[in-house]
């Protein structure tokens, strides 16, 4: 059966959902974005099959509506939905990083006969906007759904059937569980990243050279501080209670570290890092985000035109598929590291052997 999906908000996440859903021959995606340039780009780039300038008008004719707007804007859209006269068969969902306030609003919608099932894919990036959208962004990532208690199972299954085109791992949680867990693994870490950048900035006037020395460690820890501030303003506003609890725990943890520093006992300090390493090494995470596994191979390529093409040609000749390729600039003025990602450990091993055999470049696995 053909389904029409309206995606409101065509940035990184809305654009990626729209592209993923288009993998289904039975889905037609129509998009809307408050920014007219984004709307035009989405159409030209084929991120959506069609666009609308009036979502309210088209909403009655679609099967599913996905809000992929910053979470405060999503609440506003949900409020306006109340007067749209949607048929009871329409499924409304979202992609927002917070869930409690959104599901409270969903409860109000239920009183009006509107079905809203909250959603949140746990994959993303510090990049925003339609140009960053990718059809495979959610592959293997967890995608949380937060249906209201007593939601019709068939309706949830229908939404799940549609979302399977994202290739994400769907899971159900309550809004409260969601907001607690995301405060731990996403929202509070974001505040820490921003605070480290503020700390570096404060250093600037006295020691302007310090920032030139910020290398891989600082970069990895603070990448997410380059995210869209409006997105994170809204997330922080909506989940500030949970985030404040994490901050209190963190302050207690920092007090523990302060005590370690005061005592200055080497064994205790080593133990602190050793325990963190053990826990971190056992986490099912890699470079793409929480709970998402990629198989990366690092290749120390020289900085001359064609060196990347040379590597990809070797891999193509041995029919080894790559899932991603990027350059990580770790040092200024010196060549970057080429990072090639594979679908599985076996492909990565074959690639490592192939590059070692056919090139003089050093390789290593993170
Ligand atoms: N960025 C991430 O890593 C990530 C991951 C998972 C979920 N999310 C959530 O997904 C949602 C979208 O995030 P994103 O990263 O795609 O942001 P984005 O900034 O890339 O895109 C947001 C889009 O929404 C549009 N927009 C803003 N206000 C609007 C409104 N009132 N009506 C219509 N369009 C509007 C913007 O023009 C923009 O195109 C947010 O709720 C966010 O919390 C983000
Ligand atoms: O990878 C990133 O840059 C992200 O910030 C993605 C990330 C996160 O892991 O915190 C950000 C917000 C989300 O709601 C889900 C995923």
UniProtKB/TrEMBL annotation:
UniProt-listed SUPFAM superfamilies: 6-phosphogluconate dehydrogenase C-terminal domain-like (SSF48179), ACT-like (SSF55021), NAD(P)-binding Rossmann-fold domains (SSF51735)
Short name of one Pfam family: PDH_C
Entry's Gene Ontology molecular function annotations: prephenate dehydrogenase (NAD+) activity
Membrane-spanning residues: none
EC numbers on record: 1.3.1.12
Residues forming coiled coils: none
Prephenate/arogenate dehydrogenase domain segment(s): 3-291
Domain ACT: residue ranges: 296-366
Pathway(s) per entry: Amino-acid biosynthesis; L-tyrosine biosynthesis; (4-hydroxyphenyl)pyruvate from prephenate (NAD(+) route): step 1/1
Keywords: Amino-acid biosynthesis, Aromatic amino acid biosynthesis, NAD, Oxidoreductase, Tyrosine biosynthesis
UniProt entry tagged with the keyword NAD: yes
Matching InterPro entries: 6-PGluconate_DH-like_C_sf, ACT-like_dom_sf, ACT_dom, NAD(P)-bd_dom_sf, PDH_C, PDH_N, Preph/Arog_dehydrog, Prephen_DH
Catalyzed reactions per annotation: prephenate + NAD(+) = 3-(4-hydroxyphenyl)pyruvate + CO2 + NADH
Family, per entry: Belongs to the prephenate/arogenate dehydrogenase family.
Protein name in UniProt: Prephenate dehydrogenase
Organism: Viridibacillus soli
Phylogenetic placement of the source organism: Bacteria, Bacillati, Bacillota, Bacilli, Bacillales
């Amino acid at each position: 059966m053909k389904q029409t999906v309206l995606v409101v908000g065509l940035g990184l996440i809305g654009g990626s959902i729209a592209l993923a859903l288009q993998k289904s021959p039975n889905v037609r995606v129509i998009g809307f974005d408050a920014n007219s340039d984004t709307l035009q780009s989405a159409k030209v780039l084929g991120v959506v099959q069609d666009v609308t300038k009036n979502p309210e008008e088209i909403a009655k004719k679609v099967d599913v509506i996905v809000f992929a707007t910053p979470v405060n804007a999503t609440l506003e859209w949900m409020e306006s939905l109340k007067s749209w006269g949607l048929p009871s068969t329409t499924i409304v969902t979202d992609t927002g990083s917070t869930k409690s306030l959104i599901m409270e609003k969903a409860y109000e919608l239920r009183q009006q006969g509107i079905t809203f099932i909250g959603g949140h894919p746990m994959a993303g990036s510090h990049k925003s906007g339609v140009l960053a959208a990718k059809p495979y962004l959610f592959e293997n990532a967890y995608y949380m759904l937060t249906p209201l208690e007593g939601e019709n199972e068939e309706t949830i299954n229908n939404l799940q059937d549609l979302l399977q085109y994202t290739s994400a791992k769907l899971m159900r949680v309550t809004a409260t569980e969601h907001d607690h867990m995301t405060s731990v693994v996403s929202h509070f870490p974001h505040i820490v990243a921003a605070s480290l950048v503020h700390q570096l900035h404060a250093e600037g006037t006295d020691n302007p050279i310090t920032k030139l020395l910020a290398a891989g460690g600082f970069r990895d820890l603070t990448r997410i501080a380059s995210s869209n501030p409006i997105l994170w303003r809204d997330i922080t506003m909506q989940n500030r209670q949970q985030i404040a609890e994490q901050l209190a725990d963190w302050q207690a943890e920092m007090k523990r570290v302060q005590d370690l520093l005061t005592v200055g006992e080497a064994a205790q300090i080593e133990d602190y890092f050793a325990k963190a390493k053990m826990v971190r090494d056992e986490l099912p995470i890699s470079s793409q985000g929480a709970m998402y596994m990629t198989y990366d191979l690092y290749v120390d390529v020289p900085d001359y035109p064609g060196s990347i093409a040379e590597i990809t040609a070797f891999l193509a000749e041995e029919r080894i598929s790559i899932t991603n390729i990027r350059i990580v600039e770790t040092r200024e003025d010196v060549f970057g590291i080429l990072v090639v990602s594979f679908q599985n450990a076996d492909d990565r091993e074959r690639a490592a052997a192939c590059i070692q055999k056919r090139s003089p470049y050093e390789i290593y696995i993170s």
